[in-house]
Amino acid sequence: MISYQKVILKMAEEIKQANETTDQAKIIAHTRAIKLLAELILDDHQLDDEAAKLDKTVADELELRKMLGENYQPKQKLQQTIHHYDQPDSLLDF
After folding, report:
1. How far apart are CA 70 and CA 57, in angstroms?
2. Tell me, what's the pLDDT at 92?
3. How far, in Å, are 8, 18, 64, 66 from residue 70 at the CA level?
4. What pLDDT score was predicted for residue 45?
5. Does residue 34 contact residue 8 with C-beta atoms inside 8 Å?
6. Cβ(64)–Cβ(72) under 8 Å?
7. Tens-digit pLDDT string for the chain (94 aa)
8. Is 35 within 8 Å of 48 (Cβ atoms)?
9. Nearest-angstrom CA–CA distance, 85 and 90
10. SS3 of 73, please?
11. How far is CA 64 from the centre of its chain?
12. Is 22 helix (H, G, I), strand (E, B) or coil?
């Protein structure tokens, strides 16, 4: 895993290079690179959050199993409700 500090330093380099040029195409290319680097950090952070939620869910489930023993029944997934409309060709159906 690349450290956030290294990614931020690379973003600073791209900003510096974009400030030093007057060519619009190069400025756009540097801006695209900055955007991708920012998304790299944000995506990594989002994955960390999702992993933490999953770990918490698993830990909660194990704790419940210990507490309730044989009486424990895992949560059932809710079935999706299917809605049927009287006017399928209505303009308000999207």
Report:
1. 20
2. 61
3. 51, 64, 11, 9
4. 72
5. no
6. yes
7. 568 899 899 999 999 999 999 999 999 999 999 999 998 888 877 766 666 666 667 666 776 666 666 665 666 554 555 555 566 666 665 5
8. no
9. 9
10. coil
11. 28
12. coil
Phi, psi of 77 (to 5 degrees): -70, 140
Q: Global pTM?
A: 0.50
Give the ranges where 1-94 is alpha helix by DSSP (H).
4-20, 24-68
Structure tokens at 70: 């044989």
What residue type is 19 in one-letter code? N
Place of tokens 């290319």: 29
Contacts of 10 (CB under 8 A, 6+ apart): 37
